[in-house]
Specification:
Blueprint: H1 2-10, H2 29-36, H3 42-50, H4 65-99, H5 108-122, H6 129-133, H7 135-149, H8 151-155, H9 160-179, E1 200-209, E2 213-223
Antiparallel strand pairs: 1-2
Length: 227
């Protein structure tokens, strides 16, 4: 049945389809531009453009830079919060076992490893933005640097290699804080389902051929404004 519908649609299409024929291909360009696109969100506009030939596309309004930052902060915060929760959970488990004299709980080595892993994740290029646009998170990282730079805290780390690794991580993180000063406060908010880092973010799209199905992929564009 679906093939019959596709064939009937294809008979009235006057141009070469981007992929598998859809009902969008039989709509006049004015209908897409003035009656449909204004009612769609950012991602839906992008998806419509990906389904229509270049000559029939209506570029979505560019996403303002601050919305991109808010979107990225939202996703970054969720990821790092989940990661930070791992070390907190381990510390809670250690406290629980210690208070009840129970053996076999997580080791201090595992806790330190998770803390180092979290602090290293903050240094990843896509996560540094959080230090520039979220003052509370920046202050939290600074407090962690101060906390783990304390000789008493270092003395409690059971392995020398972990002490060295932590010291190197804190040193690099301090350099990042100095080279990436706080800019302004931006409230995290979801606009898209993925991170955006450049003016045209590549999106994979399928190339469909009648009788053969999907034979390859090409890259389309998400129209954003980062500069």
């Amino acid at each position: 049945m679906s093939s019959l519908i596709s064939n009937s649609i294809a008979r009235v299409i006057q141009h070469k389809c981007v992929g598998k024929p859809t009902y969008l291909d039989v709509l006049p360009g004015d209908v897409l531009q003035y009656c449909i696109m204004p009612l769609l969100g950012w991602e839906d506009r992008i998806h419509v453009n990906m389904l229509t030939p270049a000559g029939d596309r209506t570029l979505p309004n560019k996403i303002p830079k601050e919305q991109i930052i808010a979107n990225n902060l939202n996703l970054i915060t969720q990821k790092l919060t989940r990661q930070a929760r791992k070390s907190t959970t381990l510390q809670t488990m250690i406290a629980y076992h210690t208070s009840r004299g129970i053996h076999g709980g997580p080791s201090k080595i595992k806790v330190i490893q998770e803390i180092i892993k979290f602090l290293q994740s903050v240094q990843e290029p896509q996560n540094i933005m959080l230090l520039q646009f979220n003052s509370a998170y920046r202050d939290r990282i600074i407090s962690k640097i101060i906390e783990f730079s304390n000789p008493a805290a270092v003395a409690n780390i059971p392995r020398i290699y972990l002490r060295q690794q932590l010291a190197e991580t804190l040193s690099k993180l301090t350099e990042i804080l100095v080279s990436h000063p706080f800019i302004k406060e931006v409230t995290p908010k979801k606009y898209l389902s993925a991170l955006v880092w450049q003016n045209e973010t590549a999106v994979l799209n399928e190339w469909w051929v009648p009788g053969k199905g999907v034979v390859g992929r090409y890259q389309g564009d998400i129209y954003v404004e980062m500069e």
